[in-house]
Amino acid sequence: MNSTPTPDVAAWSEGRSRLYEAAIEAFATRGFHATTTRDIAAAAGMSPAALYAHHRTKEELLYVIAMRGHETSLALVRQAIASHDDPVEALRELAHSFAEFHATSHTTARVLNYELAALAPAHRADVDELRHHIDHETRALVQRGVREGAFATPNATMAATAIISLGVDVARWFSEGHHWTAQQVADFYADAALRIVGAVR
Amino acid sequence: MNSTPTPDVAAWSEGRSRLYEAAIEAFATRGFHATTTRDIAAAAGMSPAALYAHHRTKEELLYVIAMRGHETSLALVRQAIASHDDPVEALRELAHSFAEFHATSHTTARVLNYELAALAPAHRADVDELRHHIDHETRALVQRGVREGAFATPNATMAATAIISLGVDVARWFSEGHHWTAQQVADFYADAALRIVGAVR
User: Could you tell me which of A71, A77, A161, A63 has the C-alpha nearest to residue A115?
Assistant: First the structure.
């Protein structure tokens, strides 16, 4: 479905990892449009020619970053859903790991959530497909909890949206040195998610 | 405390309003750093010289936008708190109007929340002071609800953070033409806020 095959993260060279880190930092700090490939190459300690060997455009770089990040998010959601048959425990795990990821990876997550408008339409469609799965699978979990009598909410879809949205926005306000740890935020947010769906103990 | 007096919105000329609208649109679409004062002047149908008569820099323009937006948010929070003695009804009103503002003014709100890093330190401090009041007064309301036995939450500060965060993030995912109206989102979010604080009926 992707117009470019998703790269195998494990196989990435150190130089390539440096390149992605430099691009994430630059996009998060100055925004996609104000960043040049030359800035990114310099920050990664590479020549512009070396960068072009990997990526023809900075949009392609943003695309790879966006796909990786959303694949990680989707994997966390799926792992959480598979972790417990009980929808209460599965949702607790989902909200916890989703919030924790957005706290610990807040710089990457800002790029994933605020720079998507810069993607080419075909690339945006690939990312939106992953986002659709994240939303859809979270919603399906909440709906199952309602059907099984474990949750009580007037709108399972909005409840799922609110839980994902809470997690995403952690990346905006959280940073290292915050007086709360990522773990404390994740613990509170796991409980908040259960409250939002009206989990019945 | 502000280094520039806050402008009187009612006294703004039509040209000035067009200027702010053009700047908000440009900052939201391409980011602050990739926008030039020339772009903004052109979008507002002004000459660059006319723009410079009002603002010497685009940073000053961002500052005025950020102050106006945060003053509006703070006013909504204060009105809600003053609207009811009962903390349940006051928090319902607060979460409702805060979410509704971030849905209906989503383009402005994106600039308010994602472009602040571009402000000069003194201007950032002015905006942060308004943000501090928004957080502090919301937290004080939740704490009062806990003291009065109306709310039950293990952490009033995190609960207040989550309620404000939920409202802010509406600006990221909401847009006109969404299958939910701003009113529907606000209604659900008002209820979600009461659930997060464990409102006891």
Answer: A63
CB pair distance less than 8 Å for A34 and B29: no
Kindly give, in sequence order, each residue whose CB lies less than 8 Å from that of residue A18, ignoring residues fewer than 6 positions away.
Answer: A44, A45, A46
* Ordered alpha helix ranges (H), B31-57: 37-43, 48-54
Q: Do B162 and A159 touch (CB under 8 A)?
A: no
Search chain B and give the residue with CA nearest A170: B165
ipTM of the complex: 0.89
Half-sphere exposure of B107 (CA within 13 A, CB side): 12
Q: Class of the B59-196 domain? A: mainly alpha
Contact (CB<8Å) B33/A32: no
Contacts of A33 in chain B (CB under 8 A): 30-31, 33-34
Q: Which candidate, A168, A160, A144, places its Cα nearest to that of A194?
A: A160
pLDDT digits (tens, 9 = 90+) for B70-118: 999 999 999 999 999 999 999 999 999 999 999 999 999 999 998 998 9
When the pLDDT of each residue in chain A is averaged and rounded to a whole number, the result is 91
Query: Structural domain boundaries of chain A?
Result: 58-196
Distance from CA of A34 to the nearest CA of B (A): 5
- In one-letter notation, the amino acid at residue A173 is W
pLDDT confidence band for A12 (50 / 70 / 90): low
Total beta-carbon pairs less than 8 A apart between chain A and chain B: 80
Q: Which residues on chain B are in Cβ contact (under 8 Å) with A184?
A: 158
Q: How far apart are the first and last CA of chain A?
A: 42
Q: Provide the pLDDT for residue B12.
A: 61
pLDDT at B4: 46
pLDDT over 90 percentage in chain A:
75
Residue A96 has pLDDT above 80, yes or no: yes
Instruction: Specify the CATH number of the domain A58-196.
Output: 1.10.357.10
